[in-house]
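Lab notebook, bench 4. We co-purified these components, and the gel suggests they stay together. Before we commit to crystallization screens, I want a quick structural picture of the whole thing.
Request: model the full complex, all chains together.
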Amino acid sequence: MTDVGDDSPVPTLAFAILALIAREPLTGYQLSRQLRDPIGLFWQARHSQIYPVLNRLERLGWATAEEVPGPGPRPTRRFSIGAAGMDALRAWVAAPQSRRSGRDELLLRVYASWVADRSVTLGLLRDAEARHREQLATYTARRRSAEDRGVADDATTAEFADYATLRRGIGFERGRIAWLRWLMRRLDADGSSDDEG
Amino acid sequence: MTDVGDDSPVPTLAFAILALIAREPLTGYQLSRQLRDPIGLFWQARHSQIYPVLNRLERLGWATAEEVPGPGPRPTRRFSIGAAGMDALRAWVAAPQSRRSGRDELLLRVYASWVADRSVTLGLLRDAEARHREQLATYTARRRSAEDRGVADDATTAEFADYATLRRGIGFERGRIAWLRWLMRRLDADGSSDDEG
DNA sequence: ATCTCCATGTAACTCGTTACATGATTTT
DNA sequence: AAAATCATGTAACGAGTTACATGGAGAT
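Here is the predicted assembly.
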């Protein structure tokens, strides 16, 4: 009994959860881990946000819960998507997209970086490159593993959809690293020529 | 007198605003337009979010306001960054970055797209491509204009920082379009061979 | 004994969007 | 005359984060 009125618009997180339980039934805890890592690539949520949405999906008849043995003071519940949930998810995929480009703190820092010393900016960019290289390594390992399992062969499967988003993640990281390297070269060049004290 | 307690952490939006008024003094209204278009590329805010932050920047002594002639029932105020604001902005550029990768609704839709008909998914991707091509055209026009003005020549200016973020925008759009085309080709191939029904 | 993982929930708060409210100037 | 633009604010709500709360199972 977290909330009762079910007339308010369904949040995007609900569809992220539906997309995950459409693959296999999951507990709230498992969802909270998945919304850090695999899908976490492009959608994140904490467990405090997930549990209320799960209860709402249940009340909407979009998901059903079964109790499974587990630890803890409260029952462990595994959620499965229902026929109505599949319909809702299908409708959402086709729904018109809202074009709000996201927020990117690194770009904002670079936009403001002319107020700082060149060495500070270069440090910022080097840190960013290291973190993106790390992320890229994770993604490429995952891509190789997917390709070895033959996931890339049939574009109609759920695993292929995973693989497709993974490829976009790799493209994003590579593009960002290339841009960071370009920017560092430019800052190095305009600093080492040392026109002004 | 919107809020009084000034001990809570300063939101990222405050630094986005500082980065803008560090270039030239702006009114709240001008900021709200800039946080749609040029910087809007990677940070957005509505005027209802901006005005309270401006008042807070003033109370912090990070920005100063001067009244200028203008229309409307309330005085029009143009904000300039102060020395303390510049220090705060400089410190923020160098501060450790929080790595929370953003949310991307298109990727979430693709992740869920295996539940929908192939034609629906292809429609989604075609729409996305059209919107990204449009955005790319805007960015490339802006880049050409910046290069014609010689902005790309000196990496120490504020205009170069603009230009650098613009280049990242172009890279992002191109990468995304390439990925969309790859995905559409893959879906076309696995559909036109028509193995089933 | 302590730590980590599994497991679910609530409370308090900040961030962000939409809607309400007012009113002058300029353009169509 | 109507619409768009300039200009600033508040209110209500939804989205998202952090912190509080509980407790069993297994590993160190």
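Residues 2, 27-30, 32, 47-48, 51-52, 70-77 of chain B lie near DNA strand D (CB under 10 Å from a C1'). Worth comparing against the SEC data before the next meeting. The longest helix of chain B spans residues 158-192.
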